[in-house]
Amino acid sequence: xxxxxxxxxxxxxxxxxxxxxxxxxxxxxxxxxxxxxxxxxxxxxxxxxxxxxxxxxxxxxxxxxxxxxxxxxxxxxxxxxxxxxxxxxxxxxxxxxxxxxxxxxxxxxxxxxxxxxxxxxxxxxxxxxxxxxxxxxxxxxxxxxxxxxxxxxxxxxxxxxxxxxxxxxxxxxxxxxxxxxxxxxxxxxxxxxxxxxxxxxxxxxxxxxxxxxxxxxxxxxxxxxxxxxxxxxxxxxxxxxxxxxxxxxxxxxxxxxxxxxxxxxxxxxxxxxxxxxxxxxxxxxxxxxxxxxxxxxxxxxxxxxxxxxxxxxxxxxxxxxxxxxxxxxxxxxxxxxxxxxxxxxxxxxxxxxxxxxxxxxxxxxxxxxxxxx
Length: 373
Fold this sequence. Notes:
CATH architecture of the largest domain: Orthogonal Bundle
CATH class of the largest domain: Mainly Alpha
Strand content: 5-15%
């Protein structure tokens, strides 16, 4: 039942349950636990703290095969603290001042900023987990995942392994005495480096920096979710924390060339010979065709058919037709003809703008059946 829980999670759960027993909470009775929660709430205990005890008690209820208790809704700030590039530079500079442990501390900072590892995952990695540029980790829920190691991280790892001294342990992060560094020991080391750099920092801030950095580099949210090892994409969105300034910066970098306005009957409109009509999006097609009924288009095609039948093939730019609709008159000429044939009925003409009888028959057939309209 508890095989998907980490040993650290089980340890914290037992500690919380012991605290509840010391507070005279009868774990066998849900009402006893609820009364304790209400009393703590009245004392001003934070919802986040109470949720920690509720989660631990729910794991105990899982053992009893009973339904869980709902958590409090935690009101959190929409924007969480995120490390910046300047923090990374200050931390690396500070880590290099720690003498014989400098290589290890530099590796820890590199791994946090450039792989997005959680602190617990970082403390448990072993030499067997290394496979070229891939690092195998055991994440939340005891799920195995793979993490990419950039070239700069691999170089920092190689430098550290040359000075690493171990007493038979397979863990990568080894203390000066040759023993594996624990989770609390690693957190203390990160705190010491941040204090030396004189900044506010935590390992999770680096993980958020990793998510934002990759998103700005062009990775989509689904790819980022897989790299961050999140179950829900909403969690990834929370990590990215994009603001309007980020969107404006992205727009500047893309240097999008916006369309320029033009007059339909401008003199130079047909100065450049064309071999056909450019494709147009479905949305624009829908906007154009939505203004008139299919019957109106059909009546227009019939009129155009008669003109060409009795007067012979002619240039579309010289044809003017007016068709009565239910509530408006459709005047087709010049550029509007081009838009009609380009957007509504994607056929190509003989030559550039010459319309022939076979092409018009095809257009009539399409208008009657409603195809491509």
